[in-house]
Design brief:
- The chain is 13% helix and 65% strand.
- It contains 1 helix and 7 strands; from the N terminus they run H-E-E-E-E-E-E-E.
- It is elongated.
Length: 161
């Protein structure tokens, strides 16, 4: 998400120059879907071993070029994924969704995008029986200055039942 957010801020910054020059109000929509994984997932606690994650990440939203030259961006990042464990157990999260919103007032603005997510999924044993739930808690902040990520903070933890 951080790389995509930096790219999005850079594109919007370019559009900001065009919007300022034209003085028009325009709404544009965007969407991008990326296959993620397989990647190794570290020991998250809860008695689960290291697993392998694969999924689909979809970012979609809109940006509005206002007549005052500013650009407002809002959207969602939805991540549907599965983690497979060596003993045959697996975890499925159908849709971890994070919302984002920011405004660029002028080209080259520094933008900080913060988000928090609470993602609940089901843990299954090797035979497909539900054996518990895992909740992923995430808080992140990313600062982009002139198209470059300058600060990135991500704090996450898991709880299990």
């Amino acid at each position: 998400m951080r790389k995509l957010m930096a790219a999005l801020v850079a594109v919007v910054g370019t559009l900001l120059v065009a919007a300022t020059a034209q003085g028009a109000v325009t709404v544009n929509h965007f969407s991008s879907t990326t296959q993620v994984g397989p990647i190794s997932v570290p020991d998250v606690g809860c008695g689960l071993p290291v697993g392998v994650l694969a999924g689909t990440d979809t970012v979609a939203g809109q940006f509005v070029q206002h007549d005052n030259g500013s650009v407002e961006v809002e959207g969602t990042d939805t991540f549907a994924y599965r983690v497979d464990f060596p003993n045959g157990d697996y975890f499925i999260s159908p849709s971890a969704t994070t919302h984002f919103h920011f405004i660029l007032s002028s080209p080259g603005d520094t933008v900080t995008v913060g988000s928090s997510a609470l993602d609940r999924g089901t843990l299954y044993d090797a035979s497909g029986d539900a054996i518990g739930t895992v909740t992923f808690h995430d808080t992140s902040y990313t600062t982009v200055a002139q198209g470059t990520v300058t600060v990135s903070f991500d704090r996450f933890f898991f709880t299990c039942k």
